[in-house]
């Protein structure tokens, strides 16, 4: 049971996402086409909890398992993705930043129009797992211990209050984690968490560092099929790797107190 599983990472789904959300968005037509590809090729979408449970117990996985995940909680996931998922009978996971969603817990800062809690409940009722993605979407590895605990626990509590179910899966904003971050997420009651490595997920990565593959506006249907099949992933994200390394360097320099680095990220 050590086979590799593609975990697809989506953000906004919509025809005209806000500029800040555009690059990592997909159009409704592209999303529908991508789900067709998964269906045609015999993939079986699972929730994050289902994959983690199978890997924890050594239980069986279906032929060609895949995970469909959405980060942040954009309204288009309800409006455009849910009908497509329902048509195929596909499971998915939605990772919400609870302070970004519209309603009683809203703190502002979201990049685009977000879901409200009624829509989240409708997604949950349709079989979408609701997972956590912090409260205010910070870079978790930059937080002190108290704030780190708050971001994990508050997110968990709000989801439980609004859906009636405590979330068990988590996704790190920006994919950043560290041993300290993973420990805080675990202490808040999450049993597994997803990163972003642009690689297939494997059991040996451990339940708190499962890798995902980014799907974005520029992902063509041929490239999507390759990613789902696990072929040529390194090639697709070679440029991103350079960017990520550059960004990590900027962050390290900032932390060291250098004030000369003003690179926009
Ligand atoms: Zn996010």
UniProtKB/TrEMBL annotation:
A Pfam family that the UniProt record links to this protein: Polysacc_deac_1
Primary localization class, coarse: secreted
Highest taxon listed in the record's lineage: Bacteria
This protein's UniProt keywords: Signal
Residue ranges constituting the NodB homology domain according to the UniProt record: 64-265
Entry GO terms, CC: extracellular region
Keyword Nucleotide-binding belongs to the record: no
Record bears the keyword Signal: yes
Any one biological process term the GO annotation gives: carbohydrate metabolic process
Subcellular location: Secreted
UniProt-listed PROSITE patterns: NODB
Range of residues in the leader sequence: none
InterPro entries reported in the protein's UniProt record: Glyco_hydro/deAcase_b/a-brl, NODB_dom, Polysacch_Deacetylase
GO MF term (any one): hydrolase activity, acting on carbon-nitrogen (but not peptide) bonds
Designated name of the protein: NodB homology domain-containing protein
Native source organism of the sequence: Streptomyces purpureus
């Amino acid at each position: 049971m050590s086979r590799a599983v593609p975990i697809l990472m989506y953000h906004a789904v919509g025809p005209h996402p806000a500029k800040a959300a555009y690059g990592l968005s997909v159009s409704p037509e592209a999303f529908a086409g991508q789900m067709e590809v998964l269906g045609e090729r015999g993939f079986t979408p699972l929730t994050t909890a289902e994959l983690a449970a199978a890997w924890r117990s050594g239980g069986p996985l279906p032929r060609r398992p895949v995970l469909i995940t959405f980060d942040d909680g954009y309204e288009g996931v309800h409006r455009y993705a849910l009908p497509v998922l329902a048509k195929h009978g596909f499971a998915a996971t939605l990772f919400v930043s609870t302070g970004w969603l519209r309603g009683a817990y809203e703190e502002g800062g979201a990049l685009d129009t977000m879901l409200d809690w009624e829509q989240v409940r409708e997604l949950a009722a349709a079989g979408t797992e609701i997972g956590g993605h912090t409260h205010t979407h910070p870079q978790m590895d930059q937080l002190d211990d108290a704030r780190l605990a708050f971001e994990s626990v508050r997110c968990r509590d709000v989801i439980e209050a609004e859906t009636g179910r405590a979330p068990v899966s988590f996704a790190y904003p920006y994919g950043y984690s560290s041993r300290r971050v993973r420990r805080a997420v675990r202490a808040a009651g999450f049993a597994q968490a997803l990163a972003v490595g642009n690689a297939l997920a494997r059991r040996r990565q451990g339940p708190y560092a499962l890798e995902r593959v980014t799907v974005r506006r520029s992902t063509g249907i041929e490239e999507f099929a390759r990613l789902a099949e696990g072929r040529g992933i390194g090639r697709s994200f070679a440029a991103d790797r350079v960017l990520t390394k550059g960004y990590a360097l900027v962050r390290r320099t900032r932390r060291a107190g250098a004030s000369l680095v003003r690179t926009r990220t």
